[in-house]
Fold this protein.
Amino acid sequence: MAKYTLPKTEGRAKRGRFETVHGTVETPLFMNVGTVAAIKGAVSTEDLRQIGCQIELSNTYHLHVRPGDEIVYQLGGLHRFMNWDRPILTDSGGFQVFSLADLRKIKEEGVHFHSHIDGRKIFMGPEESMQIQSHLASTIAMAFDECVENPSPRDYVERSVDRTTRWLVRCQAELDRLNSLPETINREQLLFGINQGGTYADIRIRHAEEISQLNLPGYAVGGLAVGESHEEMYHILDEVVPHLPQDRPTYLMGVGTPANILEGVYRGIDFFDCVYPSRNGRHGHVYTWHGKLNLLNKVYELDSAPIEEGCQCPACRQYSRAYIRHLLKAGEMLGMRLCVLHNLYFYNTMMKEIRDSLDAGRFETFRKEHLSSLEEGQKEILDRAKRGRL
Amino acid sequence: MAKYTLPKTEGRAKRGRFETVHGTVETPLFMNVGTVAAIKGAVSTEDLRQIGCQIELSNTYHLHVRPGDEIVYQLGGLHRFMNWDRPILTDSGGFQVFSLADLRKIKEEGVHFHSHIDGRKIFMGPEESMQIQSHLASTIAMAFDECVENPSPRDYVERSVDRTTRWLVRCQAELDRLNSLPETINREQLLFGINQGGTYADIRIRHAEEISQLNLPGYAVGGLAVGESHEEMYHILDEVVPHLPQDRPTYLMGVGTPANILEGVYRGIDFFDCVYPSRNGRHGHVYTWHGKLNLLNKVYELDSAPIEEGCQCPACRQYSRAYIRHLLKAGEMLGMRLCVLHNLYFYNTMMKEIRDSLDAGRFETFRKEHLSSLEEGQKEILDRAKRGRL
């Protein structure tokens, strides 16, 4: 079993270390999302090494429909397929089944649905999700759960959470079985449970206490950032995180903006993941410590400065805002690649600075200092750019 | 003025060295095409350094319409814009004016046409082409010429070639003037003349002799690979190259396949350029010493070998055919990027091997050895792959 230690805390914020069969990671960390075993924006695992990524995240549902988890298994698992030797986390497929698939039908045994690629019928339940993730041979497999949107009726959420608990027990049994098979690629695959309960703090807390009994190597808070306000999300974290095991990593799924991450760390989160940096990068929106810039804006046409002064990412070390803007306007893929590289580097570097501030016992100062400037936003940035001060 | 030396020859094949204000290049060489100041397929100048590119080629017409050569000038020229300190060659815009633009009208003073981007009216003649290229500040500016398609009527070709000669004289005068201005970025910009004449050897030879009188730092053979057969192209090269100055680099424009390049070197060509490696790469067609592979073919679904065994390109050192095929099938940009990187590396490496063989006095053996295997083509490759021998 993996080993999680907590060299330092500050309030509820955790400065953790997680040892896995694919190496040790330092938390808090941001997982870089490679949906179909590739980071969108022409970014490779070689690039991920350059920009300080610790854990790559891939999507079980997408890989199941293409190229097929059997293919990945025959090629030796995701690590060999992508040429990445550090940890990989795979989601359970549940989120995509509920958000992408057509005509889904939820039953006790699992979910019947149609592939969004070719429409063929697929069934996925806890056992199937574990079998697929075992084929993919990720470091961390996520439990198969139902992610309900917010807000949802209380009685639906209660019934759903109870089923998610029963599914988790089945996931654990199935992964134990798979990890005992000689033909399994990664027999030390870890299962993380997922807390659900919508925006109902009492349901969340009861669920957190139930799943904590299963003694899993890590726990996630799921079902947030799916419709509720930031304040509701922070409130739920305030309520539920203290009921998850302190001596295991805690993962806030699908979150979020730099400010969300600072607030999540403050509330005891170790792992984050989000498509924002790559999706925004592909649209020319780039992160800086003073907010997001839209490089398509004409104000950057003759701007020979890098995206952010002093940034050591592959884009900023070499290219100007004006050049990247030109590439984006001309529809050149290189423009998207440079923006995505910058954004992922920004996220990974921000996590490192958060860890450094925790190590130095000054996270609270760091959080307060950056929360406001990170949210400055485009308008103020543009005003300053026009006044020649950026 | 640049210095061209010829350390070695073998038959008509030239092993040259060309010293420019942006560094020395070794010929024969392949210029990597970055149409709008970016190599299509998310490839950057940083990547070009990694894969052995000696000269980057950009397109005057495209940069004139977007972002505008005035913008590039204000940003310090193409070298600073792209962050590339080695030589850059810009074409004259002529080829694109004749192939892309709508409603063109050729007159003695130049060409009136409409932009293919926004339809606005543009006029380009020899002076305008030189002014734009001077703004771009490339190392080598190409003369503004008319590239006629093959075959064209003899009397049209004769009249066109005479005009191209008159245009060349005007290009030379204008570039001399621009190079004398204090505000010019690269005051050592070089002008290459272009030989035309369709498939009429006698017209070509007369034209080559006329333009050789102008004592330019380099000469190109244009108007080939535009409709005629390979045999006609080789015949024209046999006829015309001996009438161009031996002590200047000779550039065969827009050519070609690996076999075309071997045949061009054999006939005394120093510089080549072609969109094949990047265009084919974006479609999953990759070059090997045994012909082109189509990575989309199902035969590669479980193929864990690199594109080419032993290849040191960024794709082959890290990723398998199966992985790249998956990326291409899933429409991930990374698949295109890896194929383009491989193809450009293949072309640059092939040129290095050609130079090495010339240095060792064994080019003729090298040419014969590789001509047939390079043309093996997809069918035989697939047969061998199916038999498990590739």
